[in-house]
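Lab notebook, bench 4. Still working through the backlog of constructs that have no structural model yet. Next entry is a single chain of 193 residues. Request: give me the structure tokens for it.
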Amino acid sequence: MSKTLIPTGPVLGIIGPSGVGKSTIVNKLAANKVVHVNPTWTTRARRQDEHSHHEHIFVSQTEFDKLEQAGSFLEVATMFGVPHAYGLPPLVFSEGSVPELIMLRANLVPLLLRHYPNAVIYQIEDHIDRVKPRLEARQTESNEPLGTRLTHYEQERTAGQALASRIFSSRDIDKAVNDITTAITADFANTAT
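Model written out:
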């Protein structure tokens, strides 16, 4: 059974390949109260540095399957050769006028747009030479698969560029946060709830 939602506020999707700094930027935007973050659900193991992050809810495959069977997700997907499942829940719209942010990957954007067709998509990028050491550190810390994330880096970056209305470099995190804040002000000026 397909669920249809009537969007009740502005929606911002943040995309970008693994290791580009999406979580760091999203958490700073949330701390600055520029956005309200809606988490996705995933069977991926929580990384050591994700103890205070709120862009994902981490569950076992068994729990994920129960939630999916109960109809808790609008969409479920896997991506780019990584074995983890991701669930897109209905967004919870906050009382304020800030956009509802959901952090996802490029191949999930069509699923988001199926339910929230007016969502605005921003991509965050960094050079592969800066991303590779971050992904290697993750592999060491949490035994996370490295090969598929590096193998599909360029494919995901290119796919995201075709979907995003704006692209931001994460080379300087504070500059990226400021640039995204400015873009949000411009792109969502007339969407107050």
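Notes after review: The chain has seven helices and nine strands. The beta strands are 11-15, 36-37, 40-42, 56-58, 75-79, 82-88, 100-103, 120-125, 166-169. Flag for follow-up if needed.
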